Amino acid sequence: MSSLRALLLYAPILLLLVPSAHCQGRRLFISIGSDDWGRWSNSLPVWPDMESRKSAMMNLGWPSGGEPMLSTVEEEEDLQDLHEMLSELNRNVERRLQVVLTPFWVVGGPDFEGMRRTGCPDMPTCEYRELFWHNSTGGHARSPYNRGDLRSSFLRLFLDGLWHPEYHGRSHFDTRAWVQYLREGDKFSRFYFEQGMVFYDLSPRREGGGNTSHSLHCEYMADAVRFQ
Predict the structure, then answer these.
(1) Helix axes 187-194, 50-60, angle to 10 degrees
(2) Percent share of the chain, pLDDT over 70
(3) With b meaning 16 or more CB within 10 Å and e meaning fewer, what string describes 98-132?
(4) Average pLDDT rounded to a whole number, residues 42-59
(5) Which of 9, 12, 123, 178 is deepest in the core (most CB within 10 A)?
(6) pTM for the complete prediction?
C-alpha cells in the first residue's frame, strides 16, 4: 500500500519530532492521513500485486490509469511492519504524546460469488451483493488476493492503542454504476469482474462518464448525473 510505504519512509522524522516536543514542554500535534484501509474495491482495480496489473494490461491492452492503478491490498507483512513502526515511535514516550494512527477504513466490498448467483456479470438480473468486515474475512481472504484472515492483526493494532479506525465508506465506489456497466456488457467491467476485481469506465467518451461516485456505498459525491 502506497500510504503505508510513505508512512514508513517518514517514520525517522516523527521519531525526532515527538520526543523533542516532550522535552521542550510543548504540545505538538501531528496529523497523518492514511487512506482506504480494508478496501478491496474501487472504481479502478485494486490489485493483488503489481504482476497482476502488468498481466491484465498486456491481456486487455488498457492504459495504466496513472497512480490510482497502482493500488494494492495490504497483507500480513504490511500490518506487522506498521505495528513495529508505531510501537517504536511510542517507545519511552508518555501516553499523551504517543502516536495513534487514524486509518480511513472501508467496511465492505463486493461479494463476487453472491453476485454471480444473481446473474452477473451481464444478465439483466445482475445485482450488487456486499461483504462486510464485521461478519466475514472480507475480500482479502478470497481470490485473487488470498491474504488469509487479517482481522486479528487489524484488531491487535487497535487493542495495543496504535490505531483507531475512522469510517470511510462501505464499498468505496458507486455500485449502481458498476452493475449498470456489467448489465450492458462492457468488456472492461466484465474482464475485471471475472478476475475478482472492480472496474467501470470513467472516461468522458461515454455518456455520463467522469467520476461516477454517487451511491451510499461510496464515501463522496461527484459530478456524473447519470447514476444519481
Answers:
(1) 140
(2) 69
(3) ebebebbbbbbbbbbeebeeeebbeeeebebbbbe
(4) 84
(5) 178
(6) 0.76
